[in-house]
C-alpha cells in the first residue's frame, strides 16, 4: 500500500494574469475593419495612379496583426501565489512555459507595495533580508487589491489555531 500525502490547508490562493481588453472576436473585427478600410482607400489611390499606396496600406494591417499576436502570446504568462500551512509558494510561468518556483517561510514575511501604485510598482515580498518582486503582470488597481488580500491572509495565517 502506497503512502498518501495529506492535503495541506490553503489559506490563500491567487493567479495573477495579464489583462487583455481585446477579445478574440474583437481582434478579428478590428483587423477585418482595418483591412477593409485599407483595401478601399488603397484601391482609390491605385485607381488615381498612386499605386504604391496600396502596399503601404497593407503593410499597416500586417504590422498591427504582428503586434497583436505578440501581445496575445505574452498573455500566456502568469504568477500563482498560494499560502499553505507551511509556506508561501510563488510560481512564475513565462509565456514560453518556463517555470520558476519560490517557497517562502510566511512567519516573518512582509508584503510591500509603494504608494501611489504606478505601472512599474511591484508587490515586494520581504523575508530574511531578501526580496521577491511579483505582480507586475496585472494593472495597478488589481495589484493593490492583491497586496491587501495577501496581507490579510498572512494575518489570518499567523492567528490560525492550527499553527499554534
Could you give a short description of this structure?
The protein is an alpha+beta fold and 164 residues long. It has helices at 24-47, 52-74, 140-159, and strands at 10-16, 78-84, 88-93, 99-104, 110-113, 123-127, 130-134.
Task: Describe the SSE topology.
Layout: E1 10-16, H1 24-47, H2 52-74, E2 78-84, E3 88-93, E4 99-104, E5 110-113, E6 123-127, E7 130-134, H3 140-159
Antiparallel strand pairs: 1-2, 2-3, 3-4, 5-6, 6-7
Helix pairs in contact: 1-2
Q: Top keywords for this entry?
A:
elongated; 3 helices; three-stranded antiparallel sheet; PH-domain like; disordered N terminus; four-stranded antiparallel sheet
Structural class: alpha+beta
- β-strand amount: 15-25%
Q: Can you tell me the residue ranges where pLDDT is under 50 for at least 5 consecutive residues?
A: 1-6
Q: Could you give a short account of the major beta sheet?
A: 4 strands, antiparallel
Cα radius of gyration in angstroms: 24 Å
Strand order in the sheet with the most strands: 1-2-3-4
Euclidean distance between termini CA atoms? 32 Å
> H/E element string?
EHHEEEEEEH
State the share of residues found in helices, binned by percent: 40-55%
Number of domains: 2
Report the strand count.
Answer: 7
CATH architecture tag of the largest domain: Roll
Shape verdict: elongated
**Might you state the CATH topology name of the largest domain?**
PH-domain like
What would CATH call the class of the largest domain? Answer: Mainly Beta
